[in-house]
Write a structure and sequence with these properties.
This protein is an alpha/beta fold. It has one domain: Glutaredoxin (3-Layer(aba) Sandwich), CATH 3.40.30. The protein has four helices and seven strands, in the order βββαβαβαββα. It has helices spanning about 50-55, 70-90, 105-110, 135-150, and strands at about 5-10, 15-20, 45, 60-65, 95-100, 115-120, 125-130. A five-stranded mixed sheet has the order 3-5-4-6-7, sandwiched between helices. The radius of gyration is 15 Å and the shape is globular. This is Thioredoxin.
Length: about 150
């Protein structure tokens, strides 16, 4: 169990859980197991191997971009989502999930159109938004959705 003074942050590289003092989240930090940076300012590539750790184990909300390589709007939004990652970390983790490669996860979240962003916290869907968006709109939507979590 974490306290308000610390958060569990899942390593983007090895998946280890790291306890980080809340006041030091902005300073980044490195994983206690593999010593890589806990925050890279870029979205993670989510797969069946690492999805559950990031969606359910950590204290940070996970913003998932469900996309596919054949989808024009998905490709158009990719740089915007990456720019948003640099602005939203360390408040939340951002990740991209290829719906073609990870059909079971996309099916579990009932993804019917792409791109779709889903904000997940502790394994629970908090908010969802479909359609390509520019970076500032992604940041504003994600911050607004996070405010709704405080209930």
């Amino acid at each position: 169990m974490t306290s308000p003074e610390s958060k569990i942050v899942v390593c983007p590289s090895c998946g280890a859980s790291n306890r980080v003092p809340t006041a030091k989240l902005g300073a980044g930090g490195t994983c206690g197991r593999c010593h890589t940076a806990l925050f890279t300012g870029k979205p993670l590539v989510l797969t069946s191997a690492n999805f559950e750790a990031h969606a359910g184990k950590g204290d940070l909300p996970l913003l998932v971009d469900f996309w596919a390589s054949w989808c024009g709007p998905c490709r158009q939004m990719a740089p915007a989502f990456e720019a948003a990652a640099a602005r939203l970390e360390p408040m939340m983790r951002l990740g991209k999930l290829d719906t073609e490669a990870e059909q079971a996860i996309a099916g579990r979240y009932a993804i019917r159109s792409i791109p779709t962003m889903v904000l997940i916290h502790k394994g629970r869907e908090i908010a969802r938004q479909s359609g390509a968006m520019p970076p500032q709109a992604i940041v504003q939507w994600a911050q607004s959705a996070m405010m709704g979590m405080a209930g």
